[in-house]
Design brief:
With 649 residues, this protein is an alpha/beta fold. It has 28 helices and eleven strands. The protein has a five-stranded parallel beta sheet with strand order 5-6-7-4-8. The protein has a three-stranded mixed beta sheet with strand order 2-1-3, with no helix packed on it. It is elongated and about 100 Å long. 41% of the residues are buried.
C-alpha cells in the first residue's frame, strides 16, 4: 500500500489528507476521539459556612432570567455567590451546569459537555456549530435552568466562534423564560461585554456581615462579635481573607494550649495585635498576592504596561482615596497622561482599584486595604510632600467648610510623620489635616492624629516655635471636642505658661491660648475662672483689633454663654443678637461660627419663653448646618435634637 490516510480533526471539521508511508492521527478538540475530560458538575463540596451579606443580590439574580455578570476583585467571593445560586436552583429541581473558563480548552470542552447533556450527538458537534446548537437547545428548555461560567477573566476566550459583545460568542442573550446564566469575572468593562448582559459589581462585605462571616469560620472561642468586627475591618471585608483568618484561628484554637506556639494567636484580639505588629501577615501563603498578580498580568497583556507601577504608586499613600490631580505621570517611567488614565481604568475594571467622582468635585482613586498592603512601597512619598507644600497655602484654612473637600482627601499628609529636619510645610500640612478631622466632627480621629505631632514638634522645632505651640493647641482643642475637659484644661495651663514666656502676655499666640483655657475652664464647670480669662482676652482684642474682629466676637459670644449658664437667658439673648449681627456682616450668614451663635440664640429664646421664634431659628440653623457641615456632623445633630425638644407637644 503506497499511500495511507492521515485524519486531521480541527475545529470540529474532519479532513482527509494523503501522506505516504504511515498512518498518523492529530487530534485538536476531536469530536470523535476522547479529548481531555471535563466536568460540568458544580463544586457542591466547596459550600461551607453560610454566605453572608449577599441576600439582596441573590434575590435579584433569582428573580428572573437572562445573562448576569458578577465582577470584582479577586477574593471578593464571586464564585461563592454563584455556588449559592446553584444550590438554590438545585433545591428547585432545576438543572445546573458549571463551566470553568480559566482557559480556552476548559471553556470549549465545558460548553461541548453542556451541549451533550442537552442531547447533542457527536455528529451534531462535528458540524462545527457547537455554540449555535447549544443556545438553540437551551432556549427550548421548558423549565428553569442555570449555567455558570466561572472565572471568565479573559473576555477574548468568550468570543468563541463569534464576538461576545455582539451576542455571537460562547455566552449569549437568550429567549428562555426561566434560564439564568451567571458569569464570574474580574473584568467589568462594559465595552467588552456589550449591552446585553446585566453587570453586577461584587464588593467587600460590610462591617457586620464581615464579622459574621469571620465568626462562622473561627468559632465561638475566638472572641466577641465586636472583636470580630475589628478584624473584619482590618481585612477590608474581603471574603477570602476573612475565610483564611477564620480557618487560621479555628486551627490554632482546636489544639491543646500546650501544643500552641507562643506566637500563634488564638483570639480576634491577639490576631489583630499580631497583624499590627508585623508578627503575622494576612496573606501568609501569598494566595491573595498571586490572585492579584494574575489580574495585573491580564492588564499588562491588554497593553496597560504601566498598571503595575501605577498600583505600587497608589499603594504608597495612606489608606484613603487619592486625588487624581496629584498623580504625576512624570514620576512613572514611560508613562504618559493617557497611559496613566488607561492604567487607572484597567485597575478599576479588574477590581484592584476604584475610580470615584465625588459629584464632579474631586475625582479620586481608592484601593482595597489589603491590595494596598500587598503592593506598598515608598514611591508616593515625594508626591505627598508636594501635596503638603500646596496644603501650606494660606487659602487652605481647615476651619472653612468650603475648603473641606480639599482636606478630606489629605490623610496622606499624616503619614509623612515630620521629624527633625523636615521642612515646615510638612508640619503645616500634617497639622491642618489633623485639625480638619476635629472640625469636621471626628475629634477622636483628630486627637489620634495630632497627639504624636504635638509630642514631636517641640523636640524637632524647639519649644518656642510657633508650629510647636500650634500642635499643642490643636491637641487641646481635640481633647475639648472629644469630651476630655479636665485633660484639656491641664494641658492648656502648661501651654499658657509657655506662651507667656515665649510670646509675651498680650501676644496673639498667648491671647488665643488664654481664650482656649477659658473654654476648658467653662467645660469643667469653673465659670468664675472662665469669666476672668474671657474678660482679659476681650479687653486686649478690642483694644488691638477692634470690637467687630472675629476674635473679639468669638470672645463676646462665649461671655454671653456664661450669662446663660448663670441663669440670665435675657442678658445672653441680647448679647447673642449683637454678636450675630456683627458675625453675619463680617463672616457671612452661613459661617460655622455664625451658625453656632444663631443656635445658641435659639436656646436663649426658648428659655425666655419665645418658643415660636426659637423653633424658627433652630429650623433655619438645621437647614444651613445640614448643607454646610453635613447631616451627620455632631453640630447638625445637636441642632436637630434641640429642635425636637423645643417643638410644642
Amino acid at each position: 500500500m503506497g499511500d495511507s490516510v492521515r485524519n486531521v480533526v480541527s475545529g470540529g471539521r474532519q479532513e482527509t489528507l494523503i501522506q505516504a508511508g504511515h498512518i498518523e492521527h492529530l487530534v485538536v478538540g476531536d469530536a470523535r476521539t476522547a479529548p481531555d475530560e471535563v466536568t460540568v458538575a458544580p463544586p457542591w463540596g466547596d459550600r461551607g459556612t453560610p454566605l453572608r451579606g449577599r441576600e439582596e443580590l441573590l434575590d435579584r439574580l433569582m428573580a428572573g432570567p437572562g445573562v448576569h455578570v458578577l465582577y470584582g476583585l479577586g477574593g471578593v467571593g464571586k464564585t461563592s455567590l454563584a455556588l449559592e445560586a446553584a444550590h438554590r436552583h438545585r433545591e428547585r429541581g432545576a438543572p445546573v451546569w458549571w463551566v470553568a473558563a480559566q482557559d480556552g480548552t476548559r471553556l470549549s470542552g465545558g460548553m461541548r459537555a453542556v451541549a451533550r447533556h442537552l442531547g447533542a450527538t457527536d455528529d451534531d458537534l462535528a458540524a462545527g456549530v457547537t455554540a449555535d446548537l447549544l443556545w438553540q437547545r437551551l432556549d427550548r428548555l421548558g423549565g428553569p435552568w442555570l449555567l455558570v461560567v466561572d472565572n471568565a477573566d479573559d473576555l477574548g476566550l468568550l468570543d468563541g466562534p463569534g464576538r461576545l459583545a455582539s451576542g455571537t460568542g460562547w455566552v449569549r442573550p437568550h429567549s428562555a423564560p426561566h434560564g439564568l446564566v451567571l458569569v464570574t469575572t474580574r473584568d467589568g468593562d462594559p465595552a467588552g461585554w456589550g449591552p446585553l448582559p446585566v453587570l453586577h459589581p461584587v464588593g467587600p462585605l460590610a462591617r457586620a456581615e464581615g464579622a459574621q462571616a469571620l465568626h462562622d469560620r473561627a468559632g465561638e472561642s475566638a472572641g466577641r462579635p465586636e472583636e470580630a468586627a475589628r478584624v473584619a475591618v482590618r481585612l477590608g471585608g474581603l471574603p477570602l481573607a476573612l475565610d483564611t483568618a477564620g480557618r487560621y484561628l479555628a486551627s490554632v484554637s482546636e489544639r491543646p494550649a500546650f501544643l500552641r506556639g507562643a506566637d500563634e494567636p488564638a483570639s480576634y484580639a491577639a490576631y489583630l495585635a499580631a497583624v499590627g505588629s508585623g508578627d503575622l501577615t494576612v496573606d501568609g501563603d501569598g494566595t491573595l498576592a498571586r490572585i492579584w498578580d494574575m489580574s495585573l498580568a491580564l492588564a499588562e497583556a491588554r497593553g496597560h504596561t504601566c498598571a503595575r507601577p501605577v498600583l505600587r504608586l497608589l499603594a504608597g499613600f495612606a489608606d484613603a482615596p487619592v486625588p487624581l490631580r496629584i498623580l504625576d505621570p512624570a514620576r512613572i517611567p514611560g508613562t504618559t497622561p493617557a497611559g496613566l488614565w488607561g492604567a487607572l481604568q484597567a485597575l478599576d475594571r479588574l477590581g484592584l482599584a476604584e475610580l470615584r467622582d465625588r459629584d464632579g468635585e474631586q475625582p479620586v482613586v481608592a484601593l482595597h486595604p489589603l491590595v494596598r498592603d500587598a503592593h506598598r512601597t515608598d514611591a508616593a512619598r515625594a508626591l505627598a510632600e508636594d501635596l503638603a507644600a500646596r496644603a501650606a497655602d494660606a487659602d487652605r484654612r481647615p476651619e472653612d467648610p468650603a475648603r473641606w473637600p480639599f482636606w478630606s482627601l489629605l490623610p496622606h499628609l499624616l503619614e509623612l510623620e515630620p521629624e527633625d529636619g523636615s521642612p515646615e510645610h510638612l508640619w503645616v500640612g500634617a497639622l491642618c489635616a489633623a485639625d480638619h478631622l476635629t472640625r469636621a466632627g471626628a475629634p477622636e480621629r483628630g486627637l489620634a492624629a495630632v497627639r504624636p505631632l504635638a509630642a514631636r514638634a517641640p523636640r524637632a522645632l524647639g519649644a518656642a516655635h510657633r508650629l510647636s505651640h500650634w500642635a499643642r493647641t490643636l491637641e487641646v482643642s481635640a481633647l475639648l471636642d472629644s469630651g476630655r475637659a479636665a485633660q484639656a484644661r491641664s494641658a492648656c495651663e502648661a501651654l499658657l505658661r509657655d506662651c507667656e514666656e515665649h510670646f509675651g502676655a498680650d501676644g496673639p499666640v498667648t491671647l488665643r491660648t488664654r481664650h482656649l483655657y477659658a473654654v476648658a475652664a467653662q467645660q469643667t464647670g469653673d465659670l468664675a475662672a472662665a469669666r476672668d480669662a474671657y474678660g482679659k482676652v476681650l479687653e486686649v482684642y478690642v483694644r488691638l483689633l477692634g470690637p467687630t474682629d472675629r476674635h473679639s466676637l468669638a470672645t463676646r459670644h462665649n461671655l454671653a454663654m456664661l450669662h446663660h449658664l448663670d441663669g440670665d437667658p435675657a442678658g445672653a439673648r441680647a448679647e447673642y443678637e449683637a454678636v450675630l449681627a456683627a458675625e453675619t456682616r463680617t463672616l457671612g450668614a452661613e459661617h460655622p461660627s455664625t451658625l453656632t451663635t444663631r443656635h445658641n440664640l435659639a436656646t436663649a429664646l426658648a428659655d425666655c419663653g419665645e418658643t415660636e421664634r426659637a423653633v424658627a431659628e433652630y429650623e433655619a440653623v438645621l437647614e444651613a448646618r445640614t448643607r454646610v457641615l453635613g447631616a451627620g456632623h455632631r453640630e447638625t445633630e445637636a441642632t436637630r435634637l434641640m429642635l425636637a425638644r423645643t417643638l410644642p407637644r
